[in-house]
Amino acid sequence: MAATLQGKRIAFLAADGVEEVEYVQPREAVENAGATAELVSLKPGSIQSFNHLDQSKTYDVDVTADKADAAGYDALVLPGGVANPDFLRSDPDAVRFVKAFFDAGKPVGVICHGPWTLIEADVVRGRRITSWPSLRTDLTNAGATWVDEECVTDGNLTSSRKPDDLPAFCAKITETFAA
């Protein structure tokens, strides 16, 4: 039986430079399971997604990080892209928002370069995690145990490496967000 997220509210924290497929596919997965998804970002209006290094579509922002309250959400997804998490980790409101999910023990899904924001929030220490391979040293230096696996779940945190891992990532976050 497929996991249901009926009645759940899922935050997607992303900024300009988000890898489009890493935003769109997980959002479709949770919405198809019955959740309401909302895009949280750094500024009102819209964000510019990318397909690797090429501009793609824009997506409307539902709420800005300075006004978002993690208490109003059941789970969080941090898509990747190279620029996106770099913008997020530089924003105190975005970092506060991420940390609040961990402080509350809520489930979080992160893919590709997304863990940069987790490092800034100081929530990876002692965790087993995967990511885009270039983040290995950053995650290790932040106290995490980095592994090269398709999808890793450690407590409330589910992580994946890259777009090729999206089928496993989407299935796992849907499962863990439903629990």
From TrEMBL:
A GO biological process of this protein is: proteolysis
> Could you tell me one molecular function GO term of this UniProt entry?
hydrolase activity, acting on glycosyl bonds
Instruction: Give the UniProt keywords, A-Z.
Output: Glycosidase, Hydrolase, Protease
| Entry EC number(s) | 3.2.-.-
Show the SUPFAM superfamilies listed in the entry: Class I glutamine amidotransferase-like
InterPro entries xref list: C56_PfpI-like (IPR006286), Class_I_gatase-like (IPR029062), DJ-1/PfpI (IPR002818)
CDD domains (UniProt xref): GATase1_PfpI_like (cd03134)
Q: State the top-level EC class.
A: hydrolase
The DJ-1/PfpI domain sits at 8-175
Q: Which Pfam families match?
A: DJ-1_PfpI
Source organism's superkingdom? Bacteria
Family, per entry? Belongs to the peptidase C56 family.
This protein's name: Intracellular protease, PfpI family
